[in-house]
Structures are given as C-alpha cells and as structure tokens.
Amino acid sequence: MRCPFCKEDRDKVVDSRSSDSGRVIRRRRQCLVCKRRFTTYEKTGESFKLYVVKKDKARVPYERDKIIGGLQKACHKRPVSAEQIQQIADKAEEDIFRNFEKEVSSAFIGESVMKHLRAVDKVAYIRFASVYRDFRDAGELIEEVSRVIQQAEPMEQLKLFDT
After folding, report:
1. Which stretches of 2-148 are assigned E, i.e. beta strand?
2. Rounded to two decimals, what is the model's pTM?
3. Which of 27, 44, 126, 135 has the most other CB atoms within 10 Å of its CB?
4. How far apart are CA 80 and CA 30, in angstroms?
5. How far apart are the two ends of the chain, measured CA to CA in Å?
6. Is the pLDDT reported for residue 152 higher than 80?
7. pLDDT tens digit string along 125-151?
C-alpha cells in the first residue's frame, strides 16, 4: 500500500478490525519511511449495489462519500477529528448494511448518522439536523436545540453555550 503522505510503498499493519457487519476490513497502517499512520479499507467486490431511496422516491447508488461530506460540513470548526468522522460513518454503515440489502431510505441514513454524531458533538449534530430535517422555521430549530439541552448533562449544557 502506497503511503498517502510520502508515496512510499513500505508499511506495516498496526491494527485490523472488521466493520460493516464483516463486509469491510479497516486497517491502520504505519509507513516505515515517514512513520505516519493512515487508514485503509478493504472490501470484496460484490455483484449487487445498494440504492438509496430519496424523499422524492428517486433511487440513486449509495455513496459513503456523501455521508462523509455531510459530516465534514456539520463538523467544520468543531473539535471533531477526521478519525471521529470516519468512525461515525463506519457506525452508520454498519446500521445500514445490517438492516438493508438492496435499498435503504435516505431517512434511515440521516437518522443513523445523527444518532452517532449526537454522541460525539451536540453542536455538529444540530448543524447536521438543521440541514437534514429541513426545518421550516426558526421555531422548529429552537425546539430541537431545547431537546438537546434538556437531555445534556449540566456541564455539557454550559459547553453548548460556550461555542
């Protein structure tokens, strides 16, 4: 595997684990030249495609990059690392592939991502929810923020207002 940083192809596997209900192997690697670590994902070539059923009933091929992109926007300037974003996407994918084989609704994907994002960063969760749920007015947004604050621990409540 070629290092994404120094482009050398000498590395060692530091950690391996299964994700996506055993369909994907996540490997942490360390370059033997520059000593930096990076993650690779291995999955079998499958003959089927998972399709996402959108709100308008259109069907589009599932793309993990769309989940990552949405998470990156929601987590912009938040203390959420790229590794945490990958972990949230991994968990959401596990939910998806555990429950669906050929088609999954965009609603299920969004709810799964929000569930895992909320556990990591409540502000990023509110950002993601505001786009995903397409609040009609500020009142709906305020209701969602109020629910998050009420369910947060007292110290977390203070942190929500510091941002």
Report:
1. 11-19, 24-31, 37-43, 51-53, 59-61, 103-105
2. 0.63
3. 126
4. 22
5. 40
6. no
7. 888 888 777 667 777 778 877 877 777
Strand ordering across the sheet containing 103-105: 59-61, 51-53, 103-105
The answer to whether the beta carbons of residues 120 and 84 sit under 8 Å apart is yes
Here the tokens at position 94 are 């596990």
**DSSP helix, strand, coil percent of the chain (3-state; round to 5):** 50, 20, 30
Residue 41 has pLDDT above 70, yes or no: yes
Distance CA 94, CA 31 (A): 28
pLDDT at 46: 55
Please report, to the nearest 10 degrees, the dihedral formed by the alpha carbons of residues 64, 50, 108, 82 taken in order: -10
Distance, in Å, from the CA atom of 80 to the CA atom of 117, rounded to the nearest integer, reads 10
Residue 158 pLDDT: 47
